[in-house]
Amino acid sequence: IKSFYKMEDFLIELVIIFFTVGAWLLKQMVAKKTKPEDVFGDFEEISDYAKEKNIEVSFYQSNHEGEIVDEIQAAYEVFDGIVINPAAYTHTSVALLDAVKSVGIPTVEVHISAVETREDFRQVSFVRNACIKTITGLGFDGYLRAIDTLTQNGN
Fold first, then answer.
1. Would you tell me how many other CB atoms lie within 10 Å of the CB of residue 120?
2. Distance of alpha carbon 63 from alpha carbon 88, whole angstroms
3. Structure confidence by residue, pLDDT tens digits, 56-104
4. Angle at Cα 60 formed by Cα 89 and Cα 35, nearest 5°?
5. Distance CA 91, CA 42 (A)
């Protein structure tokens, strides 16, 4: 993992969480409760967990790569941390990698599933090269662990 900053240089107070391709469907399933909450979790659970650590979180979801890049760039000098589930863009998007690198915000990559056990093409993650950590296979708990990662040397 290549790091362009030291975690101890940051006080994490404001985090943006990006959900990309496929997350819209997940959000719909959670809202309609068509899947067990213990598998998919609840977006409020992430907010509540962050609040316990005096962290404010914002959520952003898009299926469009350029919009995600725009939002990552808009996070510059606004957010102290990024949590991103790049989903299918994990394996294809140099643009997301460049965006995360360019803003210099500590970033954690999260995948709900254990991508390392899936198809061969899923073994490549471009964005990982700009992240301080990658968390896979923990379901929604991965987002909570990402907040922990961002705050371990901060608050």
1. 6
2. 10
3. 888 888 888 999 999 999 999 999 999 999 988 898 899 999 999 999 9
4. 80
5. 26
Query: Residue 136 forms beta bridges with which residues?
Result: 111
Ramachandran area for residue 108 (φ above 0: left; ψ -120 to 50: alpha; else beta) = beta
pLDDT per residue as tens digits for the range 6-30: 444 444 566 767 666 565 555 555 5
pLDDT score for 131: 96
**Residues facing 60 on adjacent strands:** 18
Could you give the CA distance from residue 118 to residue 41 in angstroms, rounded to a whole number?
22
The rounded radius of gyration (Å) of the Cα atoms in the chain is 14
Q: DSSP strand E in 5-152: where?
A: 14-19, 56-61, 81-85, 107-111, 133-136
